[in-house]
Every structure is written in C-alpha cells, then in structure tokens.
Write a structure and sequence with these properties.
There is one protein chain. The chain has 1048 residues and is α/β, with parallel strands linked by helices. The protein is built from 35 helices and 13 strands. The strands form two sheets. Strands 1, 4, 5, 6, 7, 8, 9, 10, 11, 12 and 13 form an eleven-stranded mixed β-sheet that branches. It has a two-stranded antiparallel ribbon with strand order 2-3. Helix 21 (652-662) links the parallel strand 4 and strand 5. The longest helix is centred in the N-terminal third of the chain and has 36 residues, at 204-239.
C-alpha cells in the first residue's frame, strides 16, 4: 500500500545522448567530478549563456536506431526543474547510450532524411518518383488487357458504357491514390508499401491480416502474368509447328524458365531490376504508339474483310451503343476490365527503396493513374472508330456496287455502307471470327507492325510479373520484421546494401512455380483481384478513420483529400469485390477476419499510434461524458473498487479478489502511496506507473494502476479517495489488506491505517478489508525476483560482450564460463533460509495465488449482521457468477432474536427471493448476546495488554499524566464504555470458528468505530479478534445506500 524511500532521489535521465562539439563540465550531487555533458554552441549563441535547455532540432524527434542520424535525447523536465535547487550548482546525472529500441517496440529504420544516392556511392540504391513509382505503376497497370481484351470490352459495352467502365475504374483507383497520398505524407514512410500504410494507420490487427494476403496475392500474381506470357509464346510455337511436348506442358516449361530468369534479375538487385523495367517500358510505349500509327495507315483488303476500315464516323456511331452477348452484362464486363486498373501500389510496395517516399508515392501514383487512364481511353476509342463489331474475314462478302445499289439495313449497317456484307455473322456465329467481339488480336491487326504488339504483350506480362516478384518479398519482409507472426520472422533478414529479402524472393519463387505447375489460374484470378481490392478498401478506410478520429497527430502534408470521399472509395472497393466475384469476396473477407482474430488474440507487442487507438479514446471520452449526464440508479450500481495494494505485484491475493469482483462489472483501480519527501520518491513513482500498468496488461488483469507521492500514508490515501476516477467512473469501494503487524508497528502507522478507514467512511465509500491466514504482502519475494532478473540480465550482457569481443579465442573461453556464475554468485549472497522459514515462504507463495485458481467445492459464508445497503450481500453474489467460484454456493448467516429463529429465517428467505439471490442455506444466530468464553476473553485481554493505561490503583494526577503522555492508549473508561461491542467481536469469532472454519471465504459485516470515541488500537483489536484463526475473511461495510432492489 505504501513504499518508503530512504536514500537516493536524484533524477536520472536514462536515455540522454550528448550532442555538439564543445564540452562543459557540470558537477553536483550524484555525479563524480569529470563527468561531462556536451553543449551545442547554438545554445550559447542563441541565449547568450550556458543552459541545459536545447533549441528545437530534428534529432530529438527521431526513433531510436535511426539509420539517417543518431537520436538525441533532450534533458528531462526533472533535470531542468530540480537542477538549480541544490546550492546553485548544476547537477547532471550520468548518461547512458541509446538502447536501439524505438517507441514502436522494434528496431526502426528511420529514413526521413536518408542520404541521396549520388552522395553515397556504393551505398543503398534509392529511386526517385519517376523510376521508382511512375514507371512501375504504369507498367503494372498496362497489362495484357490493353492488347488482348480492351477491344472486346468496348465491343460488348459500346464506347459509351466503355468510357463509364474505364472512368469508374479510375475513380476507384484515384480515390485510393488520394487516400494513400494523405497517409504517406503524414510521417516518414518505410518499407512495406500497403502493409506499412495500413498497419501504421489502423493497427497491427488490420495491417497484419491484409499484409499477409497482399504479399500472397502478389506472389500468385507472378504466376498469372508468367502464364499469360507463356501462353502467348506457346501460340507462336504452334503457329511455327515447334511444340516441345504439348501445349499444357509447354506452358509450364516456358513459365518456369521465365520465373527463373525474373528471379535472377530480382536477386541481382534493385538496380538491375529497375534497368529491366525501363527496357520493358520502352518496348511497351513503342507498341502503344504502333497502335495509334496503325489506325492512320490505309487499310488493305485483308484488313477490311476482317473489319478494319480506318476512321469512319458511321462505325464510331454504331459502336456507341452496347451489344451484350452470351450472357454478358455491364457488371460482368466491368469485372473483367477492372483488374487491369489495379497495380497502383507497385511504387508504394518498394517504399523502402525510394529517396523520398512522402513526395514520390503521391506524385508518381496519381500521374500513373492519369496517364494509363488516358491511354486506355485513347486506344479504346481509336479502335472503336476503326473496327466493326463483327467480320467474317472472307473477301467474298465484298459488295459489288456495279451490280446495282444495295439497301443496307440490319445490324451490320456500317460495314454494309463501306462495301461489306457481314450479316451472316448474325445467322451463323461460327463463321464470324473477326471484329471487336470475336477477335482478341484486333490490336495486332490494327497496328502498323504486328510483331510489335506481340512484343508489347510480352513486355506487359513480364513487367507486371517482375513488379509483383519484387513487391511480394518487400511487403512480406516488412511484415516479418514487425514480428506480428512470430513463425515468419525467419524471412525478416535482408542481404546486401539494399537489404534485399533473398529468403522472401525464394519463397515467392516457390509459390509462383507451384501455381504455374498445379494451380487453376482461372479460379485463382478473381481471388487475387479481391485480395488487391481488399487492400485498396483498407487504405481508403484508413484515411477516413484517421480523419474521423481527429487526432492531433493526423497532419498530412497532402491536402487534396476528403474523409468522406475516402469512405466512398472504401465502399466502392467492397462493392467491386462482389461485382467481380461474390464467392471470392466472401472468401477474402473470411480469410481477413480469421487473420484479424489471430493477431488480436496473439496481441503483438507493438504500438504505432494507430487511428484505432485515437477513435477508442474519443469514444471513451464521449461515453464518459454521456454517462456523466445520467443520474445514478440502484439497478445500475456496479462495484468500482479502489484497492490499496501498493505495487501491482506486492499483494496478488488482494488484487485477484478485487479483480474477481470487478471484471466485466466495474472499475478496478490499483493504487500505491509512495511515502517520503517528494524529491526522493517522484522518480520511483514515475518509473513505476507504466511498469505496473504493463504488468497488469500482461497478466490480463482488467485494472488500472495509479500512484501518489506524499509525506504521509494517510494523506496519500485521502488524495486517492478524493481524486480517483473520472465522472461516473469513480470508485465507490475502498479495499485494503488487514494490518497484521499492528501490535508491533509504531503508533503513527496505526493512526494512519485506521485514519484511512475513517476517511473512507467520511467520503461515503463502501469499505472492505481482507485478511488471510498467511498474510498478503509479497514484497520480499518480488524484490528477490527482481534481483534474480537483474543478475540474469547482467550475465547475458557479459556473455554477449565476451562473445562479440573475442570470438573463437580459446584463452577467453574460461572467462566466459566463469561469467555464467554471475547469477549464482548474486543469488547466493544471502544465506539460505532455515527449513522452517522456507516452509513458511512456500505456504505464503501458495496462498498468494489462492484466488487465481479454481476454488474447490465449498461455500462462501456471508455473515450479514448489519444492513449496510446490501453491499455485504452483493459482493459475494458477484463472486458466485465467476467460473472460479461456481462450486461455492452462498450460506447466509443473520442475527436473530431468541425464540423466533424460524420467523427470522423465513423473512430472510423471502428477502433473498425478492433480490433473486440464491443460497444453499440460511442460518439464524440467536446466541450472539452470550458472553464469550473465558479463554477467548483472556486471549483478547492479553492482546490489548501492552496498549492499556491500567488506571485502576493510580491517583488522578498520575492518570492524567499517562493520558497526556500516551493519548493513543486504551483507557479503562473506554474499555468499560465499549465492553458490549468488544464482547460481540470476541463472541462472533467463536461462532465463526465453529460454523465457518471450512468455508472457502468468509464475508462478515465490518464493525464501525466512532471517531474520537474508539481509540485506534482498540479498533484494531476488534478487527483482529473478529478475524483471527479463520479462513480468508473479507470484512465489508457499505455506505448505507441501497445497492440492491427488488423493483423492476
């Protein structure tokens, strides 16, 4: 409950990093002469005098372990505040080196000001926004759709709805790009792409789930693109009669060889991969230009028979309206085209390899969306204006106008007007193999040079495959570095100057080869598209969520976004997922939910300041404010307990019982009072706040920890009683342990302890005091455990330093072995306890966990002697609702008048029925008024003997002198005045030992001592006499306001 500090008190900054060039020596308490802290010249020049204060500098705001500069640690507030209060000297504590851990709990790679490539030759290769983002995104978005299926899409939908298809796709990707721009300009962006953006915005649960499926989607996408390339190659082999085995196995062979080559390029390094991408971009651009050029080259008779007539207004108008065939619809056509618009994360996925990700990702991604969107529209409109929907390819369908005029009507009017009769396409579709609707090689026919289109197709597939092959390991490596899935941490290791994820490359290679060999890509394709869309949806939702949370930390440099547009983008992505394939969408959501649950259960030890935390805080404040406006009602009473445990680990039994009473029901506030001068105890108090809260979280105790520093224990407890809580979330019960050493403690300690109980009654708190036979205080064991852990840490540090300094040198191996004795030496400093003491320690350790375990079959005996509003009955009832106490029914004991026990029992039974509280038995005690046995009374007299004045036989002057000298002692008059109440406590203990000695827990109404009437020692004697030689006993006294009701 309290902790006293006897020495020390200097505030030590545990993470001060010296900085600057000049040195100034400071001396004072706690620091030996010669200790130095360097002072920046800028401080002196700015202020004109030497000071510990520092001017603002970026180094103060870096994460620990930053690769772009050392983190500097500013002086602590205590150093600045306390330093000049000690005889005018500047007292500066020792400094320690940075531990290399960031605020996130993991080593960081701070890249906010990484050195440019040209200034760091031979170092890591970093890309600008063009080669790093724009080129990659364009290559990934320009896929085989551009050359193979775009003409079919516009043939089915017409160029009217076709424009809608492209624009709708661009709307989804643009909204996602705007959201991504806002997120990545809200702080330093490291490697990991979509995973990094989502995890740092929504937390590890969302980031961990989407990161894994996004990396898997990229790995499988490699197989899809490579198979598309292999199919094109095999078609050429068939045309030239050069099949190796058969078409299926040839696709597998070509696909595996291609993946091996792509893997070689990727493993060679990002520099080689970037050069390969540039070569593929040039080929792709030439192929696209070739299409535009081809539309202006006059068509030949062959091309005309296949439906190409150069630019014709009648063809353009005929192709305006949709002509959906074979069960196709707008949504089915849209679902086929939309995957072509994906790929906007290709640049973000290598965010760790960009010079300035914050600037490069928004600029490169949005420009890529614009350029590729215009390209798709331009190519599609050109084809729609030059090629008819259906053509036979037969010269015989040419209309000879010399034979007379021909009336053109029906579906193929434009072709008829241009001299070809393709009406047979509508009667016999098998004869119609050309045109927008029937020929996937329209682009090859339209182009100026057909082989360039084939080269463009190769370029599109290979560039997309290469981008996915690079993206998957990069994202996967970032995920593994964060150690969200501990089994995958093996893949976090990087190699070379660019920290290449070689292990990730190999894994991606194996996955892609597996799907090339055995995967049904037609089934996998919609799942992969949905995986990408799920990441887009979460990026949009991340932006909306961060904006909605209104956290002061949400300050994106990119201003052209809107939270509601981001929400619309997220909804659109979810809708498109179902449009593409409903079962794939459900499967995606199912996988994501399972991964989310897994990460949530595992609770990774990371803290990224996500918007989820911000929204939780906003909701908590809002709910607390709304709760504050509601008046208390007896039906909504909840136990909200302020527990004076001291450190969270010091009295585990007290904490566990309080937690059992409040878990899911109410507030549990673990509190500690540090006693001593403020300057001595503040450091330990501040250090213990987070440490104790983390321990509660680790042990899954749903409780809060708070502490105060005061000169007196009672003053600290009074501060807690008055200031704890927030609004309606305020403690209404004080719970503390029984002071077993009251007979040997000093008078002031007893006065403080009893005074706390008086203060609790004054502030109308319910009060509970727990006593166990073995005691509650485990401080000794906690201290020993900390010493053991400290020694083990020293041993580990020593071994590490020796192994790092002298690897493989035999002469030092002996020293290393001796270092293993550090722990043994440290622990064996104290002599081993005697067998009797060891046995008592074992019993205490066992008793400290009694309330953590499932309770054996037994009872909870409730001695409800005084009506205190029902708290004495409600708390044990709550215990019976817990799994650990389910085998412990209530037994109720009440005081009754002699001769009417049956009537009193019936009345209590009716009352319990109205309260809907079940019990196994009701006992009426009608002999409480009987005087206690002589031996019991003798034991009580012996207990209070040292604290009595014994005024009998002394003269009045002597008596008055004794009272003035020891006003706290028990006078004969006091004993006489409260003789009946004293008899009651002693008698009650006899009955408790008689009737409840086998109970698992005893609940007894706590006696109250009137202020300034009952001395502190007499009151402690009452509590001791009442609860001695009993199983665990909880004394309870409510604040005499009803906490139970039988009204609905």
């Amino acid at each position: 409950m309290e902790r006293k500090i006897s020495s020390g008190g200097e505030n030590v900054n545990q993470a001060y990093d010296s900085m600057g060039d000049e040195e100034t020596t400071f001396s004072g308490n706690g620091v030996s002469n010669g200790d130095h802290r360097t002072v920046r010249p800028s401080v002196v020049s700015a202020f004109g005098h030497d000071t510990l204060d520092r001017v603002p500098n970026i180094d103060f705001y870096r994460n620990a372990g930053s690769v772009s500069g050392h983190r500097a640690v500013r002086p602590s507030l205590q150093e600045l505040h306390d330093v000049f209060q000690k005889n005018g000297e500047i007292s500066v504590p020792d400094t320690v080196e940075d531990d290399g851990e960031s605020s996130e709990g993991t080593p960081s790679d701070d890249l906010e000001s990484a050195i440019p490539v040209e200034k760091n030759k031979g170092g890591a290769v970093k890309f600008g926004w063009i080669t790093g983002v724009l080129v990659r995104c364009m290559l990934n978005i320009w896929g085989v759709m551009l050359f193979i299926r775009l003409s079919w899409v516009f043939g089915q939908a017409g160029w009217g709805l076709g424009i809608v298809v492209i624009l709708l796709s661009c709307v989804v990707t643009t909204l996602t790009g705007l959201s991504m721009s806002a997120i990545c300009t809200n702080g330093v962006v490291r490697g990991g792409g979509a995973y990094y953006l989502i995890s740092r915005s929504l937390g590890p649960e969302f980031g961990g789930s989407i990161g894994l499926i996004f990396a898997f989607a990229n790995a499988v996408a490699v197989a899809m693109y490579v198979v598309g390339f292999a199919e094109t190659v095999v078609e050429l082999l068939i045309d030239y009669d050069s099949i190796m085995v058969d078409s299926l196995n040839d696709i597998r062979i070509v696909g595996c060889i291609t993946v091996v080559l792509l893997l070689g390029i990727s493993v060679a390094g990002m520099e080689w991969e970037a050069k390969a991408q540039l070569v593929l971009l040039v080929i792709l651009l030439v192929a696209i230009v070739n299409v535009f050029v081809g539309t202006f080259i006059p068509s030949t008779e062959t091309k005309e028979s296949q439906g190409f007539f150069n630019y014709q207004p009648n063809i353009f108008m005929e192709n305006f309206t949709p002509d959906f065939r074979k069960g196709e619809s707008f949504f089915s056509v849209f679902s086929i085209f939309f995957p072509a618009a994906t790929g906007i994360l290709a640049g973000a996925n290598i965010s760790g390899d960009l010079k300035d990700p914050q600037a490069a990702i928004p600029k490169g991604t949005l420009w890529a969306i614009f350029i590729t969107g215009v390209t798709y529209l331009g190519v599609a409109l050109c084809v729609s204006a030059t090629v008819v929907r259906d053509a036979t390819g037969n010269f015989t369908d040419f209309i000879n106008s010399s034979l007379g005029p021909v009336e053109c009507n029906g579906p193929a009017v434009a072709a008829c007007e241009l001299g070809y009769n393709f009406s047979s396409c509508y009667t016999n579709e098998a004869d119609c193999k050309f045109g927008l609707m029937n020929n996937f090689q329209v682009m090859t026919m339209v182009s100026g040079f057909g082989p360039l289109i084939i080269a463009g197709t190769f370029s599109a597939t290979l560039s997309s495959a290469l981008a996915s092959l690079v993206s998957a390991p990069k994202v996967f490596q970032a995920l593994c570095k964060d150690n969200i899935y501990t089994v995958l941490h093996f893949f976090a290791k990087g190699y070379g100057k660019n920290n290449e994820p070689i292990r990730g490359y190999v894994l991606t290679f194996l996955i892609s080869v597996a799907f090339i060999l055995i995967g049904d890509l037609n089934v996998i394709a919609p799942i992969i598209s949905n995986f990408f869309l799920a990441s887009y949806a979460l990026i949009n939702f991340s932006c909306f969520h961060a904006s909605y949370a209104k956290s002061p930390g949400w300050r994106p440099a990119y201003r052209f976004y809107n939270m509601w547009l981001s929400l619309v983008g997220a909804v659109l992505c979810c809708v498109v997922m179902f449009v593409i394939n409903w079962w794939a969408a459900l499967l995606t959501y199912g996988i994501e939910i399972l991964l989310y649950i897994y990460v949530t259960v595992k609770k990774p030890d990371v803290n990224w300041g996500s918007s989820t935390q911000a929204v939780t805080f906003v909701s908590a404040v809002s709910n607390a404010l709304s709760l504050h406006g509601v008046e208390d009602h007896v039906k909504n009473f909840r136990p909200q307990i302020l527990v004076l445990t001291g450190s969270a680990r010091t009295r585990p039994a007290l904490l566990d019982l309080a937690h059992s009473l409040t878990k899911t029901y109410g507030l549990c506030l673990i509190s500690e009072v540090f006693v001593g001068p403020r300057w001595k105890v503040l450091q330990e108090r501040n250090a213990g706040m987070e440490k104790n809260q983390l321990w509660l979280h680790k042990k899954k105790r749903k409780a809060f920890y708070t502490a105060v520093a005061c000169d007196d224990f009672r003053q600290g407890a009074e501060t807690l009683l008055q200031g704890s809580g927030l609004g309606r979330m305020k403690p209404n019960i004080l719970m503390m342990g029984f002071k077993r050493d009251w007979r040997t403690a000093d008078t002031q300690a007893i006065h403080s302890y009893v005074g706390v109980l008086h203060d609790a009654f004054d502030f109308e708190y319910g009060t509970a005091v727990l006593r166990t036979p073995e005691g509650l205080d485990m401080a000794q064991f906690v201290q020993e455990e900390e010493e053991m852990m400290k020694a083990a840490h020293e041993q580990k540090t020593l071994e590490k330093s020796l192994s790092n300094g002298v690897k493989g040198k035999g002469m030092f191996r002996k020293s290393r072995n001796s270092s293993q004795q550090v722990l043994t030496t440290r622990v064996s400093v104290c002599s081993p306890p005697t067998p009797q003491v060891a046995k008592m320690n074992d019993m205490l350790l066992e008793a400290s966990t009694r309330f953590q375990k499932k309770q054996p079959k037994g009872t909870i005996d409730v001695w409800w002697l005084f009506d205190d509003g029902g708290l004495t009955l409600l708390l044990p009832y709550i215990l019976t609702t817990r799994k650990k106490w389910k085998d412990c029914p209530l037994r109720i004991f009440v005081a009754g008048q002699p001769g009417r026990s049956d009537l009193d029992k019936e009345e209590m039974k009716q009352l319990l029925e109205k309260f809907r509280i079940n019990c196994s038995d009701i006992n009426v005690i009608d002999d409480l008024h009987i005087s206690p046995r002589s031996d019991s009374w003798k034991a009580f007299e012996d207990m209070i003997e040292p604290f009595c004045l014994h005024e009998d036989g002394k003269d009045t002057a002597r008596t008055e002198a004794l009272r003035k000298e020891s006003p706290w002692m028990i006078s004969d008059e006091e004993l006489s005045s409260f003789e009946e109440k004293t008899n009651l406590q002693v008698r009650l203990n006899e009955l408790l030992r008689e009737k409840s000695s086998s109970a698992n827990l005893i609940i007894v109404s706590m006696p109250i001592a009137r202020k300034e009437s009952v001395s502190d020692h007499l009151y402690m004697a009452w509590l001791d006499a009442l609860t001695k030689n009993l199983p665990p006993t909880l004394l309870i006294r409510g604040n005499h306001k009803s906490v139970l009701t039988f009204y609905s």
